[in-house]
Sequence to fold (234 residues):
Amino acid sequence: MAARGAPGPLIGAGRAADVYLIGADRVLRRYRTPFDVRAEAELMRHVGQAGYPVPVVYDADGPDLLMERLRGRDMLADLARRPWLARRHARTLAGLHDRLHQIVAPAGWPRAFGSGGTVLHLDLHPGNVMLTSRGPVVIDWSNAQSGPAGADVAMAYVIMASSEVDGLPLPVRPAVSAVRGAFVRQFLLAVRDDPGPHIARVARQRMTDPNVRPSEADWLARKAVEAERASEPS
Ligand SMILES: Nc1ncnc2c1ncn2[C@@H]1O[C@H](COP(=O)(O)OP(=O)(O)O)[C@@H](O)[C@H]1O
Ligand SMILES: [Mg+2]
Fold:
């Protein structure tokens, strides 16, 4: 792809990829480690054709995904600026889960977490929802699989409950933790599928993610044990 050797200004960075502006209306998302984005691009086209809000994909080559530039901020950044919208944003996130889980995965798509053939994003949390003038749009599809819808809800729950947010000054941490608590509770109330049966397996899988930090992995391990104990017959 022509853009590969000359990415433009950096406009976004997550734990796995850097995102560069290409011209006015496109971005190049580049993984920092070797990765083939073709499957991710195919799935984005699949859900886009089913009417789900994703960026338009123009090209996929090795670690590079060329796609539509979304204008707006992500839901996590918006929560930091407007924490009073926590419940509303949580309902929006729940709606994005519910809508996604009505889409059947492409034939032969890799399965995760047992039976069920719906598309699972497996990283569908506020940091991967861009709030744009055409509504919320979901990014970062690299973990997508097919499986039971509740597993996606469980993954979102464990990510939201365990992830550390970088760069928070000590005095604001209690307030951030209260907003996060309200957000997670509202999300679980509003979302359709039950995460309960999937929490242990999902937490154990998340622990193996190289981007997860040791303190997050400790939380996930405790959660997995707690969920396993709760499901044992008494
Ligand atoms: N299509 C896009 N348009 C505009 N900004 C984007 C787009 N895709 C990603 N970004 C920005 O780049 C950041 C990182 O992208 P993301 O796909 O979430 O990568 P990571 O896997 O590293 O989290 C996002 O939080 C967002 O700010
Ligand atoms: Mg991301």
Notes: The chain is about 40% helix and 20% strand. The helical segments are 38-49, 75-81, 86-100, 149-162, 173-190, 199-207, 214-231.
